[in-house]
Amino acid sequence: MSEVLEELRKSILEYDADRAEEYALRSIEEKVDPLKSFEAMTKAINEIGEGFKKGERWLPDLVGGADAMLRAAPIIEREIKKRGVKRQSLGVVVAGTVFGDIHSIGKTMVCALLSAEGFEVHDIGINVRADEYIRAIDENGAEILVLSALMTTTAPEMHKVIAFLVEKGLRDRVKVMVGGGAITEGFAKNIGADGYDPTAPGAVKVARSLVGR
Ligand code: B12
User: Which atom of ligand 1 is nearest to the CA of 50?
Assistant: First the structure.
């Protein structure tokens, strides 16, 4: 791992938001692939998550790591979008983290990559209720819905959103992609989602295949 990536990784592990920002900017000056920078940060935040699971780290550790990552991530995301080739829209996407869930980092990354690819992305945020997704789909004429969930307790909310789409007669109009740390391929199939991938770059491939462009 290059020095800048290693420093970026360490800054998250050590909850040092100033250093994370500094090295995110430096990674761009040094023309490091922004996806590699994001991967290095993800590795660190997942390490903190693992520690939390094992009882070796606590909530303030999650918060500290997230703070550092949230300082650096927008810098990397801007670079990803800047590198994206501007072309005719590949399709309209509505994206959000499901109700009860405030994890935003992965979903925001998926949105950055989709817009760099040429999709028109409407990120409606975190803790999104089923009816809010429906409104956004209607208002923006979306063809793809991106649902993200990081917790086993909030993943079932995706099923509710899909059921609500059926109830509102919108299920045939919109392709539903699901992902986030709590989601597996099997879960995605069980709830009747149209696409799943464990990574943000994979999300772009899925989106392209769903709209056939
Ligand atoms: C950072 C973090 C936080 C931050 C979030 C800050 C923010 N703005 O996002 C804070 C501190 C706020 C937080 C809070 C909590 N957290 Co938390 N958190 C994490 C942590 C450490 C990292 C999450 C993250 O950002 N990962 C990095 C990103 C890049 O990964 P990702 O989101 O999975 O996204 C990638 C892919 O999944 C994919 N992807 C994402 N979305 C989508 C969508 C589609 C369609 C596709 C195709 C792909 C895709 O692309 C991304 C890039 O490759 C995880 C640990 C972990 N391993 O996940 C715990 C974790 C998710 N948190 C957990 C918990 C328990 C909590 C709290 C309940 C803690 C508490 N006691 O209060 C609260 C929940 C609050 C709530 N209601 O949501 C647990 C969940 C356990 C469970 N039940 O499943 C985890 C797993 C930690 C653990 N090991 O126990 N957390």
Answer: 89
Where do the domains of the chain lie, and which CATH numbers do they carry? 3-83 (1.10.1240.10), 92-211 (3.40.50.280)
Give the pLDDT band of residue 185 (cuts 50, 70, 90): very high
* Mean pLDDT of the region 180-193: 98
Q: Write the DSSP string, the chain.
A: --HHHHHHHHHHHTT-HHHHHHHHHHHHHTT--HHHHHHHHHHHHHHHHHHHHTTSS-HHHHHHHHHHHHHHHHHHHHHHHHHSPP-S---EEEEEEBTT----HHHHHHHHHHHHHT-EEEE--SSB-HHHHHHHHHHHT-SEEEEE--STTTTHHHHHHHHHHHHTT-TTT-EEEEESTT--HHHHHHTT-SEE-SSHHHHHHHHHHHHT-
Ligand 1: which of 15, 114, 150 to mutate, most ligand atoms within 8 Å of CB?
A: 150
Q: What is the pLDDT of residue 86?
A: 61
pLDDT of residue 1: 67
